[in-house]
Amino acid sequence: MAFLAIPSLIQDLIPAASESINPWNWNLNATGLFFPTMHALSKFALLGACAVQSVMGLPDQVSRERREANLLKRSVDDWVNRETPIAWQRLLCNIGPNGCAVANQGVPAGVVVASPSRANPDYWYTWTRDAALVFKGIADAFARNYTTDLHTQLKNYVGSQAKLQGVGNPSGGLSDGQGLGEAKFMVDLKEFSGAWGRPQRDGPPLRAIALIRYAKWLVENGHKATAASQVWPTIENDLKYSAQYWNQTGFDLWEEVSGSAFFTIASTHRALIEGAQLGAVLGKPTRVYTTVAPQVLCFQQSFWNAREGFIVSNINGGEYRRGLDANSLLVAIHNFDPSAGCDANTFQPCSDKALSNHKAVVDSFRSIYNINRGIAQNKAVAVGRYSEDVYYNGNPWFLSTFAAAEQLYDALLVWKSQGSITITQTSLPFFRDQVAGATVGTHAAGSTIYNQIISAITAYADGFIEINSRYAHSNGALPEQFDRNSGAPIAAPDLTWSYSAFLTATARRDGYIPSGWGAGQATSLPSGQCQKFEIASSYSLPPTPSFPSSISPAPNAPVEQVTKVPTGCTNPEKVFVTFNQRASTQVGQVIKIVGNVPELGSWDVNKAIPLSAAGYTGSDPLWAITVPIQAGSNVQYKYFRITNGVAGVTWEGGNNRSYTVPAATCNIQQKNDNWQ
Ligand code: NOJ
Ligand code: NOJ
Q1: Position 380 in a domain
Q2: Where is the active site (predicted)?
Q3: 327, 354, 389 — which closes off a domain?
């Protein structure tokens, strides 16, 4: 037995030894000598352990697979253990004011610099999206394990974003919310006035989600008043923006395609649901969010390509691409909520749609990168943004490869907690890649198929981490990308988001479940056709937050959990009125409404409400906006037109219009007008 095991043991040595020759696993030090990296070393370190197992003597075939899986697991364990403190350290290095890569360079407290790189590429800016994803990760880690340092970071983040919301920029200002859609700012929080893909509407909902995470911690630890007074005002602006502009096109998360992006829509849905949940606990109005959210979820379904079994990540723009995009992997991991099980409408990581999509997206990268060549169909490969990408010649990215792993770790957590795996026709091809004998049906824990799937997917997920470990810098530094041909780590060095992606994926690998967001209560779709009303709100600059020094965890205080999504509408103070104005316009023109009531700006044209052209077509020049107005109000109002780059406004003709808002009703009222 021991002798028989030796040939296969030697085979185990071969990949380990040849990988260590890969130049990216070796490091040229100052004296010109090569040192194997920790990754290569870890493989060698495993040999002893392996030999022991082989000598114990398992049947050949099974033992081979197990040894491979063990090798992989231990290699990944080893890298994750070494990389974790490095990732934390380097992530925090990019946050002002004291981060080691940004200190004394004018970066205020709580500002996340995307990367310290100032040229090729210049990432010396703060992006709302990157910062929010990074702080969501920090807030989850903080909630698991309180430290005063992370707490300071979170309070700083709240302060920086409260201020940033008031910074006027090329997307607009705060008065009608449009400035919140600006993608990036100078690191000192001044506007970036150069040409850019704008607006990007994922920023506000992502920031709301990050801030909500911290606010929930405050509530759950007995500091509800602080959550309400210091954090909610900033969250509220972002939720209002999400409810007002969700149906208008904007640039996707990769800042390239103007249209509707799956990531933006899904992030918006989550923010509205979770925001309503928190708002209800804080005693704030939430009807705007709960009214819009189901319609957003309804629209979210239209990204699914049922025939081919994947999410088309960009629609209403960007059709020159197939639509297979890591955008959708990021949705699966960032909208994970175990309370929703494997729900497909909210695109849970273990849903049949999300798994089918995982396969389609990962497969789209198998043949296009040289570094993926020759890797078997059931094994992990390097994952980029989308296969047609040409940015830096189109390479794999660390954060998308981590996302591919994280989705699988999420799925494993749910399967294990529910004690079964359900396979449908939709997800069967995904499972068949991993377990040839997988069949449609529900496989209970303990069954052969269940066990085979759990081990195969665990190894598959680890494989994505192993890919990143192989191409990371030997000192643990993670840039944005790695070269599609050589694997060399390239593009923006020390990308904050890359470290965050490592930390969230490996937290899931370690079994840490992020807090839920109410997805379990928000999985059902409205009956009938999706409606796309956008609800206007007024915005105001949040007061500069100031936190009592006494805030600390209160594990024994009577805690309040934020778990219930509010529903229903009874005897509302405000009636939702949709103004539909037919007005033919040209590109660069916008129709606005202003009127005598505060909700319509009290005749101040600077407080007028922009209508949305999302429903405008060649045959129906529809501009529309829904405005909550005090029930029973007598409203006088008028529309006017503004033109980009032209001073002044053009009023429609005729007298002021008038309208009496009905007494309290939960039905949305329609007011149909034509430009006069
Ligand atoms: C910079 C953006 O951040 C990146 O996503 C994009 O691919 C390039 N510009 C090219 O448009
Ligand atoms: C380019 C990416 O495409 C975009 O998503 C990101 O926000 C910026 N780089 C900054 O990291």
Answers
A1: no
A2: 252, 255
A3: 327
